[in-house]
Design brief:
The chain has helices at 13-23, 42-48, 58-63, 65-73, 90-95, 119-127, 163-186, and strands at 2-7, 28-35, 53-55, 78-81, 100-104, 132-139, 149-156. The protein is of the alpha/beta class and 187 residues long. It folds into two domains: 1-97, Formyl transferase, N-terminal domain (Rossmann fold, 3-Layer(aba) Sandwich); 103-176, Rossmann fold, CATH 3.40.50. Bound molecules: 5-O-phosphono-beta-D-ribofuranosylamine.
């Protein structure tokens, strides 16, 4: 069974959804959570589910060694990003070639790249008058949101939708599909 580390910078609602999904399955194991934010709520969610979580600074993630040492200690085979805000540094990419995946709350290649996260994405989609949005699950490479696309799912946008309402529709897609795609990639 593959051992996958989950990286998150914030609330971790996707993380909790993923842990719950795999709790009742024996296809992928999530033995470790890493964050660049010691105050991120994802630590509480991990603790509730008995999963060890650690924080590293932006520099430690960029330099790679302390993070790689811990990933090796936990015999990690792959990495899932779920709301992780830092670019993945070359040492991590080299250690996990084609084994790091991410979920982006829009239909890449549009509405991606540096600064395009969370509410910024949904506001940009709304302001552009898009009639649909969705999620993109993709491999990670050296640039933000540019790796090979694995899966996309769409949802309609009504002219009356606020960015919050768009976010809610996108989160539903994330919770619905991310665990299944993780299972396809790492299971
Ligand atoms: C999600 O919208 C995800 O698509 C993006 O970051 C957000 C994470 O939300 N990468 P949460 O921390 O899982 O609630």
């Amino acid at each position: 069974m593959k051992r996958v580390a989950l990286l998150a910078s914030g609330s971790g609602s996707n993380a909790e959804n993923i842990f719950s999904y795999f709790n009742s399955r024996k296809s992928v194991d999530f033995p470790l959570v890493l964050s660049n934010n010691e105050h991120a709520y994802v630590h509480e969610r991990a603790q509730k589910m008995g999963i060890p979580s650690f924080s590293f600074s932006k520099n430690e993630f960029a330099e790679g060694t302390p993070v790689l040492d811990l990933l090796q200690k936990y015999a990690i085979d792959g990495i899932v990003l779920a709301g992780f805000m830092l670019k993945i540094s070359q040492p991590l990419l080299d250690a996990f070639p084609n084994k790091i995946i991410n979920i982006h709350p829009a239909l890449l290649p549009k509405y991606g790249g540096k600064g395009m996260y969370g509410h910024h994405v949904h506001e940009a989609v709304k302001n552009a008058g898009e009639t649909e949005t969705g999620i993109t699950i993709h491999y990670i490479n050296e640039n933000y949101d540019e790796g090979n696309i694995i899966f996309q799912a769409k949802c309609p946008i009504l002219p009356t939708d606020t960015p919050d309402e768009i976010a809610a529709k996108v989160h539903e897609l994330e919770y619905r599909y991310y665990p299944e795609i993780i299972e396809q990639v790492f299971g």
